[in-house]
Amino acid sequence: MTGSVRLMTMVLGAGALVLGAGRASAQTVAVTSAAVSDSATRFAESSQKVATGDRYLAAGQRDSAGRWYSRAIDHNPDDIDATVKLATLLVEDGHGARAQHLLADALRRHPDDPRLLHFHALRIGADTTGASHYGP
After folding, report:
1. What is the tens place of the pLDDT at every residue in 41-79?
2. Residue 93 · residue 62 · CB < 8 Å
3. What DSSP line would sit under 28-39, residue for residue?
4. Cα(87)–Cα(93) distance, rounded to whole angstroms?
5. What does the alpha-carbon distance between residue 14 and residue 6 come to, in Å, rounded to a whole number?
6. Is the CB of residue 84 less than 8 Å from the CB of residue 116?
7. Structural domains of the chain ordered from first start
8. Which pLDDT score is estimated for 128?
9. 0.85 cut: is pTM over it?
10. Which residues lie closer than 8 Å to 124 by C-beta, 6 or more apart?
11. In angstroms, rounded to a whole number, what is the distance separating the alpha carbons of residues 125 and 62?
C-alpha cells in the first residue's frame, strides 16, 4: 500500500469512526485531524529525502544516496520505498546481513506489503533449509 493510499485509508477510517459514533466531540475530530496531518507531513518529508537519495544515486554517489535513504527511514520508519532502496544498495555493496536486518524490521511492521515481499523473494536462495542469501 503506498503512503498516499495508506493516508487515505486512515482518513476514511477515522471519518467512519466519527460518523459511526454519531456524536463525535470536537476533541475527537481535532485529535484525528492532527494525527492525519502529522502522518501526511512525515510522509512528505521522508519522500523528499528519498528523492534526494535518488538524485545522488543517479549521479553515482552511492554512499550519499544511502545516507539519504537512511535519513528517510529514521524520519519515517514506514517508508517502504526508502527501505527497499537502502536494502538494495546494501546488498549490492556486500552488506547483505544489514539489508536482511533492515528488511526483517520492515516486514514485522508491514508483513503483507508487496514491495517488501517481492524484494525478500528476490533475495531468498533455493536453499531448502530456508536460509536466505542476501549477498551481491
Report:
1. 888 899 999 999 999 999 999 999 999 999 999 999 999
2. yes
3. HHHHHHHHHHHH
4. 10
5. 12
6. yes
7. 3-123 (1.25.40.10)
8. 36
9. no
10. 132, 133
11. 26
The x, y and z cell numbers of residue 87, run together, are 536494502
CB 77 within 8 A of CB 109: yes
Report the distance separating Cα 86 and Cα 38, nearest Å.
24
Cell (9 digits) for 13: 477510517
Indicate the range of 6-15, 31-40, 88-97, 123-132 predicted with least confidence.
Answer: 123-132
In terms of Cα–Cα distance, which of 92, 86, 44 is closest to 65? 86
- How many CA within 13 A on the CB side of residue 73? 20
116 and 108 Cβ atoms separated by less than 8 Å: no
pLDDT per position as a tens digit, 105-135: 999 999 999 999 988 888 754 333 444 455 5
Beta strand extents in the chain (DSSP E only): none
Contact (Cβ atoms closer than 8 angstroms) between residue 94 and residue 87 = no
